[in-house]
Fold this protein.
Amino acid sequence: MTGAQYAVLAFVVGLGLMLGYAMVLWLEHRNMARRRRNK
Amino acid sequence: MTSPWAVLQRTLWTAGLLSLAAAIGILLVYTPTEATMGPVQKIFYLHLPMAINTFLACLVVFIASIGYLWQRSTWWDDLAAAAAKVAVVLCSGVLITGMIWGRSAWGQWWTWSPRLTFSLMLWLLYVVYLTVRMSIESAQRRAVVSAAYGVIAFLDVPLVWLSARLLPDIHPASIQLIAPMKLTLAIWFVPVTLIACGLIMARYNLNRLNRQWQRGVELVDTPAPRMRVAGGVA
C-alpha cells in the first residue's frame, strides 16, 4: 500500500468510528421516542 | 416547542459537520505534503485532535465521578457514563489511526513503546469501566463503584501524556510544523472537538431518558402500596 492509501484508510476508520457512533446514538434516540409513543 | 438544549445540540452538530467538510477540503487542497513522510503524515491532523479529545472525555469522567461522590446526584453518574463511552470510541480511533501510521512509517502495526502501551492501557481501563457498569445491578451501588473507578482510571492520562517526554520512546514527543501545517492542525481541532461534545451530549440525553423510562416502568410494574387500616388491609 502507498502512503496516500494508508492516509485514506486512517481517515475512513477514524471518522467512520466517530460518525458511526453518532448514527448509533441517533437510531437509539429514534427507537426510544417510538417506544415512548407506543407506551 | 423545541427546548434550548435541543437547539444547542442541533447547532453543535451542524457546526461540527460543516467544519468537518471544510477541514477535509483544506487538507486536500491547501495543506502541503510533508517532505520526509509524504501523504501519510496527514493522519496526524486527525490523530492528535482525537487523542486530545480522548483526554478531555476522560477528564469529564473524572470530574463527573467526583461530582457524584460529592453530591450523589444521578445526573453526574449519567454524564460520567456518557463521557466514558465517548472516550472509548475516541481512544479506539487514536489507536487505529496510530497503528496505520506506524505500519507506513515504522513498518509495523504495533510496538510496545511506553506511549503506545499506556494508550492501550487507557483504552482497556475505560472498557473495563463500561463492563463494571454493566455487571452491577443495583443502580446506587453501580454509581458509587463506577465513580470510584472513574477517579482512579484517570491516573493513566498523565502517564500517556508524559510517557513520550520522560521515557525513551519511538513515538514522537513533538513534531516541528510549518505555518500552513499548524493552521491545518488548528482547523482540525474544531470539528473533532465539536463532534466529541455532540457525542457526549447525545449519549447523556439517552442516559437521562433511559433512567426516566426505567423509573416509569418500575412505577407501572410495582403494585401500589396497600394502606393499613385498623382491623385489616384496605
